[in-house]
Amino acid sequence: MSAAIYSKLELALARVLTRNRRGLTDGPCPPEALTAHAYFDLGDKEGDEDAPFDMQVVPQRLPFEMLWIVVPYRGIAIVALAEKMTNGMVRPDYLWYPQQIEGQKIRVTEEELDDKATFIVDRALHRILTNHLESIDSEIRTKINTARAKPQDNPVGPLPEWIRISRKPAEASAPAPNDHETRPVQPHDRRGHWRTYKRSGKTIWINEMKIKGGSDEPRKYKMAS
Q1: Is 41:124 a contact under the CB 8 Å cutoff?
Q2: How many Å apart are CA 202 and CA 59, to the nearest integer?
Q3: How far is 9 from 16, CA to CA, in rounded Å?
Q4: DSSP 3-state assignment of 181?
Q5: Residue 183 has what pLDDT?
Q6: Residue 5 DSSP class
Q7: Spatial distance between the Cα atoms of 38 and 145, rounded to a whole number of angstroms
């Protein structure tokens, strides 16, 4: 997959941020996510997308309190929000927003994407903390920040740097951005929500689930303003 995919992933993130800013998404992100760091992963090579992955190697900690992870999967850009719980561990129930990658054919069903998204984001999170990272000089990010500098957009701050995962393993001697503790599945509540499939228009209800007995910390959501 060529580096040209990065600009398309940036565009997918920009669309998600805009829709959340206007309150147009089914599951709106917290307002503070509109100014969170973003990491871009090239994803897996064709044929390696379903390779086994040990979920126990996913780190517990994040480089920031909240960050976006953008990764391609069979014609779809999965734009996911990862955030810390109050105990510092990563919430395993990501908010994620699928976007078709410009110029690519979708090669995954909606049901399969629902099933795979968390797995794909977990693998990208692992790569954030085990690979070299490089800051992106993004025209799209610059354009967004120029618009946000206008008086009517003052409530929304500028976007921080956007970061590429280089896919070159970090040296063993290099300190990681954060610790590499393994992450067992933590008790949490997976919220109930409606999911509308864009291609078919079908809407289904995803029931609330209590994972490992559920969390003692009810998750609160605010509409993005």
Answers
A1: yes
A2: 36
A3: 11
A4: coil
A5: 46
A6: H
A7: 14
Please say whether the beta carbons of 70 and 38 come within 8 A.
yes
Is residue 196 a contact partner of residue 26, using CB atoms and an 8 Å limit? yes
Return the HEC string of 77-142: EEEEEEEECCCCCECCCCEEEEEECCCCCCCCCHHHHHHHHHHHHHHHHHHHCCEEEEEECCHHHH
49-82 pLDDT tens trace: 666 666 555 656 778 889 999 999 999 999 999 9
DSSP string, 29-89: PPGGGGG-EEEE---PPTTTTT----GGGSBS--SSSEEEEEEEETTEEEEEEEEB-TTSP
The amino acid at residue 40 is F
Residues 123-161 as b or e (16 or more Cβ within 10 Å = b): bbbbbbbebebeebebebbeebbeebeeeeeeebeebee
Q: Are 170 and 196 in contact (CB under 8 A)?
A: no
Does the pLDDT of residue 211 top 60, yes or no? no
Q: In whole angstroms, what is the distance from residue 197 CA to residue 194 CA?
A: 10
Q: What is the SS3 assignment for 161?
A: coil
